[in-house]
Amino acid sequence: SMARVLVATRLVASGTRYFAKYLSVKLTSIVRRRYMLTIPVALAGTGWYSAQAQEAVEATQTPSRNFAFEAHRCIQRGSLRQLKKLLQENQGRDFIDKFGRSPVMIAAMYHKVSMLRFLLTETDFGVNDVDTHGSSPLHYCFALRSSSQPAKVAVLLLSAGAKPLQEDDYGITPFHKAVAFGQHEIVRIMLKWGVDINTPTGSKHKASSTQDGKPLSESNSGDTALHIASRKGHEFMTAQLLELGADPTRVNIAGDSPLHDAVRMTHVGVTHTLINFGADPTIENKSALSATKMCNITDLQCARCLYQIYSKKSR
């Protein structure tokens, strides 16, 4: 019985020691995360407070401020006064986060027009600065689906010198991104700004077949705005682009026309629109597949659509 008592005593002592260590670290974590307070380091000498917890507490005594996070939070909340105060009191600080995003990009993403106007006119943040993926503030106009209209943000950025055909690391321009998100008004604005409606994606990567050691995907390079609208199934956008002069016979690097993309994704309405505007279903891609052959494989309804429309046009 004495042995059992000794074993039980050791177990209790061991459990108490481990529990005290867990409690000290947990308490420090909670306090540091929620309140950013410090526990007196003198407690480290009481025996129950671990050295690991002491190091954590000492680290909280001189916390490093994340100025980028504070600026982004002001923008997200819509507090222009706090943003001005933060920038004025901390001139020379780094307000770019670890993803390379500047306050201008965050303001464009959340469609904060007044803040964006202030940042572009009274700070040194550039309108064509890029993040770690090569995206500019104009790319960020379409990052979030918001109830507010991003057209005002796009016009403000374009007026400040933003480039609608500035490609990111994947060869996508703000113009192509606007088409992908179905932003009809912004597409018209960019076309009035002089954008070529048949500009392909990935044009700056044509000279090399690789990017950062990785081969470029043929199926995603050389797409025009009409390719993107057809693939996404945007019927109104497809019709708008065709009315504004988009070429329905233009092919990408893989040899696919917009009609190939519409048939592949079984978008019957888009297929109908493309045929009515002169798309040729007999064009073959690099896999020797025409839209007619492809729709027989993918969707019977698209095949009927092609047959009915093209047979009427050929009479």
UniProtKB/TrEMBL annotation:
Chain spans, region Disordered: 201-223
ANK repeats: 170-202, 221-253, 254-286
Keywords for this protein: ANK repeat, Repeat
Entries under InterPro entries matching the protein: Ankyrin_rpt, Ankyrin_rpt-contain_sf, Multifunctional_regulatory
PANTHER family cross-referenced by the UniProt entry: ANKYRIN REPEAT AND SOCS BOX PROTEIN 2, MYOTROPHIN
The protein's name in its UniProt record: Uncharacterized protein
